[in-house]
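Narrative of accomplishments. A recurring question from our advisory board has been how the design workflow behaves on a single, concrete structure rather than in aggregate. To address it, we present the structure tokens for one chain from the evaluation set, followed by the sequence designed for it. No filtering or post-editing was applied between the two.
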């Protein structure tokens, strides 16, 4: 998604009982812009009227231990975007178990980005992917564990 000289992209999945937003920010051309990802990204769900979710300050990280989500988790501090550079990472939100649809809102400078851009929120059931789909290196690790179990009954 692109807007003027500022760009944002976002993806949404579920990981260990959390909504996980994969987010990226970019600046085209010259200049510098500071963005605090934890303040720039929110989720809107349809579980209640005007339900807004914010990133969790201190989530239980056992579900993401050793994954790319843990390593690239964005902290509550600003990142500086400078010409053609992109800042990206992950934010964890509380899962809204009563929601059937989710919209990711990203605000960068004066631009407001809405994902999906079609205006139709993402169905929650489509987010329920196995973690190995979202984090490929875990798939091979789990496959090896299954093979070891099958060899030694």
């Amino acid at each position: 998604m692109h807007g003027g000289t500022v760009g944002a992209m976002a993806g949404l999945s579920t990981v260990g009982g959390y909504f996980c937003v994969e987010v990226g920010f970019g600046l085209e051309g010259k200049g510098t812009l500071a963005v605090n990802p934890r303040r720039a990204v929110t989720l809107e769900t349809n579980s209640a009227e005007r339900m807004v979710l914010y990133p969790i300050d201190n989530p239980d990280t056992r579900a993401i231990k050793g994954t790319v989500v843990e390593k690239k988790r964005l902290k509550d501090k600003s990142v500086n975007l400078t010409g053609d550079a992109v800042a990206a990472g992950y934010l964890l939100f509380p899962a809204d178990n009563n929601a059937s649809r989710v919209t990711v809102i990203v605000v960068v400078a004066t631009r407001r980005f809405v994902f999906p851009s079609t205006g139709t929120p993402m169905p929650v059931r489509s987010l329920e992917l196995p973690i190995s789909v979202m984090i490929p290196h875990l798939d091979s690790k789990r496959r090896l564990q299954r093979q070891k179990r099958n060899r030694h009954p």
